[in-house]
Amino acid sequence: MKVKEKKEVKVIHAVIVFAILITAMSCSIILFDSGVHISMFIGVCAAAVMALHLGFDWKFIEQSMVEGIMNAMSSLIILIVVGILVGVWILSGVVPSMIYYGMKLLSPSVFLMAAVLICSITSLATGTSWGTVGTMGLALIGIAIGLGIPAPLAAGAIISGAYFGDKMSPLSDTTNLAPAMAGTDVFTHVKFMVFPTGLAYVITLIIFGVMGIRYGAGGGMNLNAVQEMSEGITGLFRVSPLLLLPPVIVILAVAKKVPAIPGITIGIFAGVIMGFMFQKGITYGDVMTAGMEGYTCESGIESLDSLLSTGGIENMMFSISLTMIAMMFGGIMEKTGMLAAVVEKIIRIARKPAQLVITTEFTCLLSNVVMPEQYISIVIPGRMYADTYREMGLHPKTLSNALESSGTITSVLVPWNTCAVYVTGVLGVTTAQYLPYCYFNLIMPFVTILLAFAGITVARADGTRFREKTDAE
């Protein structure tokens, strides 16, 4: 990969590319209410043209796009596998059974808090927000519709719980990746996150608790809708507690440190077996169709048909294609140094520990926007700022906490990020719809920043709080 007559990469080059991308996105979403695929591709074109202007040859640019896609390849594979799982689980009666029993146990006044807690426990046990959203989250969305609770509000509760567990679980990839990039161990990292994360979590539970009580008091529960959906499910599927076994198997598999892809695949085969056992008339061809094209529900009940007509690889292609285009853009921005040019400019304002935490969180958010993959938002800022934290005499856990408080948490709030694309594909709720209700994800970065100024989320190299030695000094 040769670079001919390479020019100095300046901030203005990156700003121009970002401006083109943001303008294209704004026009598509705000003015024309259209998808973001072509807008994202316009951003790719802008980044490529700028790279050519800077002296990078086409072979280098093309390789940058390929490497960008490769960085998200595991996510793309998971999207494919989850698409198969959802289609098979609906056909087999697994998801319908989860919805059916959930509607029998939950009420609007406790549903939102229960959704947060259920998803928190699941995500803590498995270490995966994606797995939690694709299993418990999918069922809870169906229950919410039956209870008369808006899907965006329910999605906010599901996402809040799932990402709390993902952030705190030692089994999570991001929980292990952040300390690895910062230079500390996972248990030191998790211990340091307990107070700030716990504080944000308690605030989140209180908000959802109050909203749930108010919603229940307002008569939000539609008993007719619950009864109608329950009868619709039992009319199409044989419901049994044993059909809850596949989700349990997936949770146990991941909890036992089985990698996500084989763990989810085990869940697919478990669903197929249970389907042949409990649902009449299922054939091999039905399973193949559900895995590829998804399940088509024809109950005559609009809400139920809309909810259960999903799954399959084809229904995930929207998410997969958007992820690939987004990672093409991110690959060019990273490899040409345009993103680094922006970050280097920003870091000059970080002269104090709390300011460095703010800069780190902003960089993670920026990475989630321009290189829309959760892992990259932890890896690149972690590499960029590790030396700066050491030079300022700070413990690596200060950096690892900042990385997770923004990189992990804000990924699902960016519409074209792989995490948001996945959640939208599974739950059927757009980012713009659920974002206002993702209270944990919105609160967490600010809690970390505020506690950084108080010296609580800032630790010296010896592990003590930054403010503990100020009097002696």
Give a verbal description of the structure.
The protein is an all-alpha fold and 473 residues long. The protein has a domain at 73-315. Mean pLDDT is 84; it is low at 468-473. Helix content is 75%, strand content 0%. The protein is built from 23 helices and no strands.
Q: How is this fold's topology laid out?
A:
Layout: H1 11-31, H2 37-53, H3 58-71, H4 73-92, H5 94-105, H6 108-126, H7 129-147, H8 151-168, H9 173-182, H10 186-217, H11 223-236, H12 245-255, H13 260-278, H14 284-293, H15 302-308, H16 313-335, H17 338-346, H18 353-370, H19 374-391, H20 396-410, H21 418-427, H22 431-434, H23 439-453
Helix pairs in contact: 1-2, 1-17, 2-16, 3-16, 4-13, 4-14, 4-16, 5-7, 5-11, 6-7, 6-8, 6-10, 7-8, 7-11, 7-21, 8-10, 8-20, 9-10, 9-19, 9-20, 10-20, 10-23, 12-13, 16-21, 18-19, 18-20, 18-23, 19-20, 20-23
Estimate the helix proportion, in percent: over 70%
Based on secondary structure, the structural category is mainly alpha
Number of helices: 23
Helix and strand run:
HHHHHHHHHHHHHHHHHHHHHHH
Q: Estimate the global geometry from the Cα principal axes.
A: globular
Assembly of the depicted chains? single chain
Keywords:
473 residues, mainly alpha, 0% strand
